[in-house]
Amino acid sequence: MCSPPSLSFDRCSDMALPVLLLGLLALRTDACPATCRCYSTTVECGSLGLQEIPAGIHPSTQTVFLQDNGITQIHQRDLAGLQGLRYLYMQNNTISALEPGAFRSQQHLLELALNGNRVHLLNSSIFKGLEHLRVLYLAGNQVTRLLDFTFCDLQRLQELHLQENSIETLEEQALAGLSSLALLDLSKNHLRTLSRAALRPLLSLQVLRLTANPWRCDCALHWLRAWIKEEEGQRLLSSLDKKIVCSEPPRLAYQSLLDVSGNSLICIPPVVQVEPLEVTARLGDDLRVSCQASGYPQPLVTWRKVAQGRAGPALASTQPLSGWAELSEPRGALRFDADTGSGMLFLNNITVAHAGKYECEACNPGGTARVLFHLMVNLSQQQQPLGPRAYPASVDISQEPLYNMESMDFNALSMATQTAIAVGISLLALVALLLAIMIYRKHRKRKKAKKEENILYVNDYSDGPTTFAQLEEYRDERGHEMFVIDRNKPLFGEGEGEREANEPFINQGLPFQPQIAYEIHC
């Protein structure tokens, strides 16, 4: 009696359940990126030739496979919506750039595989947000150095795979913060030395792999040789990992570090030479100073500007890399050759702020050596003084780090300098004009005097004017002939003044007539 209704309800319920499951499955399938395979909380996009992380991955996804593609970069926006992600595998791509904060939203990520890519630079900003990460694969990349505090945010990391990179330098605080790390693989890199301080933060370390590196067996590896023989080294290193083979010096090449005597692990303290030790440069010049250092191992060279008798912060990075390290300064760039053994101090567009003392420092495990270089700046060719002792020929004013040229003090100095130059130029122009006038007047006087020296006054006692025949007897001592400029123009005319001048002679009855003179030139 009541069975039909009951049967009808049960049948409806049985039919509704599969429809609901199909709807949920269809909804999940719609959130799967094209060409990828999605099931449960996993998205499989491996070996599809992808150039970037695909969009449209469902936010509830916990595992993503993106291996064996052509992805080149990881941006923060690529993974921003995947806050529940726990496993991300991106090995064997061509990733060379990781944007700072690229994994900031992945606070639940446990495992990250980036091995087999082209990553060359690592810093702490890349790993922000990965507080729960347990395993990090970075093997087979192009990393050359590990900077201080690179992994400081990965306090729960248990495995760090860095083998098959090109790591040459492991800074002392590079592994700081890895207090939970149990496995560290640094095999097959370019490490030549390793400090004891670099491993101190690894309080939970269980496995350490250091083989297949070109180790330089000198005094810096004394500790490693002793540590391998101690209980801790015996526990952390397998029998294979204990075979640390020397690559240099040549006399120890191919020998095991354990077989080398402690007396053979030597270092030669550095010797530094700066040539010249003192230079006077002009304003606006470019200066290059070489600091050569010798020793074993090859010393690392840095430059510092001395402030108040003490060396200030290092101006050059201490990285042992070939190439140039540059600091941007508004007054002139400071550039340094960061290669070990030699350091170049470059000062471009020198100003008075560059004047002072610089210190070249060379360090190796055997010790430290320092040499001072003194730079003076010559102002004489750039600023015209108002007086003979207004400015010194060279100055050494700055014993402090280079200051900002836009400060009020420097602007005031610049205005004074411009005023001094303008006044100096005006004075020089006035002096030049006066000299020109004096020279011209003197030249005219000399010319007039010379003209008068060449004039001969001939007295004519005859009744008529002087003839050319009479003039022929007038020659100078060099035999030069004389000629009449104007025979009809007496030098002393018959004017009133002449008559008055001649009257005394007439009144006195002197036996000669007034003289007539003609102007004769040689």
TrEMBL record:
Range of residues in the leader sequence: 1-31
Record's GO cellular component terms: membrane
Domain Ig-like: 269-378
Compartments, as annotated in UniProt: Membrane
Membrane topology: Single-pass membrane protein
Transmembrane segments: 420-440
Coarse class of the protein's main subcellular location: membrane
InterPro entries: Cys-rich_flank_reg_C (IPR000483), Ig-like_dom (IPR007110), Ig-like_dom_sf (IPR036179), Ig-like_fold (IPR013783), Ig_sub (IPR003599), Ig_sub2 (IPR003598), Leu-rich_rpt (IPR001611), Leu-rich_rpt_typical-subtyp (IPR003591)
Cell membrane listed as a keyword: no
Keyword terms, alphabetized: Disulfide bond, Glycoprotein, Immunoglobulin domain, Leucine-rich repeat, Membrane, Repeat, Signal, Transmembrane, Transmembrane helix
PANTHER family: IG(IMMUNOGLOBULIN) AND LRR(LEUCINE RICH REPEAT) DOMAINS, LEUCINE RICH REPEAT CONTAINING 24
Name of the protein in question: Leucine-rich repeat-containing protein 24
